[in-house]
Design a protein that fits this description.
- The structure holds two protein chains of two kinds.
- Helix content of chain A is about 70%, strand content about 0%.
- Chain A is mainly α.
- In chain A, about 40% of the residues are buried.
- The termini of chain B are close together.
- The longest helix of chain B is centred in the middle third of the chain and has 15 residues.
- Chain B is globular, with a radius of gyration of 11 Å.
- Chain B has a single domain, classed as ACP-like (Non-ribosomal Peptide Synthetase Peptidyl Carrier Protein, Chain A, Orthogonal Bundle).
- In chain B, helix 1 packs across helix 2.
- By secondary structure, chain B is mostly helical.
- Classes of the chains: A mainly alpha, B mainly alpha.
- Chains A and B meet through helix 12 and helix 13 of A and helix 2 and helix 3 of B.
Chain lengths: ~475, ~80
């Protein structure tokens, strides 16, 4: 189920009311468990079966003694990853090697919702398990709470991916109602909802036809830039909107989920971008893939250790690219990001930005490269990617403009870009105390938060107007596909 | 063994021949001590002192003092 779906928005008050009517921790947790499974199973029971099976694997592993855990960790990891490969990558692998797969009987064998996210979530949990346990396992991981750590619906389908210290312990105490927390949560949910239904979805409706295979080769330069910049804006509004809604719901329920976006489009270096974009995935990749790999490679190539580390960096980004989807374009996207990062770390001597001019130059260069790199992410075929690049620089035949007038694009794309820029500029400076005080206003004056949440009702109605009749296809998020 | 040997590794990794370190030195005090150069530094120290750090140790090094404590625990006698 998507947070921006009417069903969820209408169901949210019911969940919140039920949650705070229950007056003990065990029942609150049970309620969260039921709601989370319902949330996952909304679009198909098979989603639930796969998730529960993988949590079962994790819980069996967690029953082991510490010494046995160390020995079996690679096996647990293998089961989780093979499950992911089976559901998400088998067609891709078979296609690459020219193998024809037999038709599988019975159940639905499509990619289960959220599998990429909860597989990483479980891996992080297993890796971190000893962090919540004493040296002698005096407080072993509690199975129900571990299951909730994975299944908790505000982060189940598209993150944030939590380390165990960020979430697990929050299930150990009861959540009491606080009007200020509810207001602040609803405020964040509303912000995310507006990003999704007022920016991401209208943009998608406007630019998706440009990316369609029949049109993508025939764009004028202006339309190509609208498609490319439009998508860059859309993917942020869509994904950060999703995260805001999830974090907002969690906060309204009394939970804290980690921040996932901090003004990524104001990053002045490739490294800074990845510390501001999808932060929880970057942290996961850095801690669990890059660091062990880079250490091993640097040891292997001791005399040329920097080279070993740069190769590890590229390999990590290629894996992250592939994590996004079973297609070569995602591998290429990861490779491009890896090469950009490797160039940044390999070629620069002084990496601190000291002057305003360097900052502005950095932002323009980095963002320019990123906008172009996202073409690879969005275009469905290599020929489409080439066509878009050709069109961007004026080599397209521009015939689409004649068939499909760019109605509204000239105002929509710059308008959406300006709004997203303003939101990110706000996030960028939100570390300063004065702005933090404004942001936290609803904590002191719940009324403000509730008034802001009233915007939710307006946006809820606007969504209908914008969508028009018979276009219910936008109840998905880009990152639901990963 | 004096601290000079460790300091020289720092100077080589951060390409700063006048760099000085103390137990309280953290990544924030040294230009370009980012996560990339952290691993670079750790492996350079491993090579110089012929020791091996665990991943958790690499992560837990908050300042030079931690690093020296870890090196001493691995049998390297380092004095300030």
């Amino acid at each position: 189920m998507a947070y921006s779906s009417d069903a969820f928005v209408l169901f949210l008050p019911v969940i919140l009311t039920a949650f705070y009517l229950v007056d003990n921790r065990a029942q609150q947790n049970a309620l969260l468990g039921v709601v989370s499974l319902g949330f996952l199973g909304w679009t198909g029971v098979s989603n639930v079966i796969v998730a529960v099976a993988m949590i079962g694997v994790a819980l069996s592993y967690l029953q082991l003694e510490p010494a046995a855990r160390e020995r079996f960790f690679p096996w647990a990891l293998a089961v989780l990853l093979l499950n992911l490969v089976f559901f998400k990558y088998r067609q891709f692998i078979a296609g690459t090697f020219g193998i024809t797969l037999p038709v599988l009987p019975g159940l639905v064998w499509t990619v289960p919702l959220g599998i990429s996210f909860y597989t990483f979530q479980i891996i992080a949990g297993l890796h971190d398990a000893s962090d919540v346990e004493g040296d002698n396992m005096e407080r072993p991981i509690q199975p129900g709470r571990f299951a909730l750590f994975v299944l908790f619906f505000p982060h189940l389908i598209a993150g944030p991916i939590c380390r165990i210290g960020q979430l697990y312990r929050q299930f150990t105490y009861m959540k009491r109602f606080a009007a200020s927390r509810l207001a602040s949560g609803l405020q964040l949910f509303t912000l995310g909802y507006c990003k999704k239904v007022l920016i991401a979805d209208p943009l998608a409706r406007a630019i998706d036809p440009l990316w369609a295979s029949a049109n993508v080769g025939r764009l004028s330069s202006g339309l190509a830039w609208a498609a490319v910049i439009g998508f860059y804006v859309q993917v942020y509004a869509d994904f950060s909107g999703y995260t805001d809604m999830g974090r907002g719901v969690a906060r309204a329920l009394g939970f804290r989920l980690p921040c996932n976006f901090r003004a990524p489009y104001l990053a002045a270096t490739p490294a800074e971008f990845w510390s501001r974009w999808h932060i929880t995935l970057s942290n996961f990749a850095k801690g669990l893939i890059y660091t062990p790999l880079a250490v091993a490679m640097a040891r292997r190539f001791r005399s040329a250790r920097k080279l070993g580390m740069l190769i590890s960096l590229i390999a990590t980004m290629v894996l992250l690219g592939l994590w996004h989807g079973a297609a070569w374009r995602f591998v290429l996207f990861g490779l491009i990001q890896g090469v950009l990062l490797a160039m940044w770390y390999g070629l620069t001597k002084a990496r601190e930005i000291k002057s305003t001019l360097a900052l502005i130059t950095g932002i323009v260069t980095t963002q320019g490269l990123l906008v172009l790199s996202f073409v690879v992410f969005r275009a469905e075929t290599p020929s489409a990617t080439l066509s878009v690049f050709a069109s961007l620089f004026g080599f397209g035949d521009g015939q689409v403009a004649a068939v499909m007038p760019a109605a509204g694009l000239a105002t929509l794309v710059p308008g959406a870009a300006a709004v997203v820029f303003a939101i990110q500029a706000f996030d960028y400076f939100a570390t300063s105390r004065r702005i933090a005080a404004i942001l936290l206003l609803p904590r002191r004056i719940p009324l403000t938060g509730f008034l802001i949440a009233f915007v939710l009702v307006l946006a809820f109605m606007a969504k209908r107007q914008l969508a028009g009749v018979g276009s219910a296809g936008f109840e998905r998020f880009i990152y639901f596909d990963f | 063994m004096s601290i000079d040997r460790l300091r020289d590794v720092f100077r080589e990794v951060f390409e700063d021949p006048s760099l000085e370190i103390s137990p309280a030195t953290t990544a924030l005090d040294v230009a370009n001590w980012d996560s990339f150069n952290h691993i670079n530094l750790v492996i350079a120290i491993e090579t110089e002192f012929n020791v091996k750090f665990k991943t958790k140790e690499i992560k837990d090094m908050a300042h030079v003092g931690d690093l020296v404590t870890m090196l001493r625990a691995k049998g390297c006698a380092i004095d300030w």
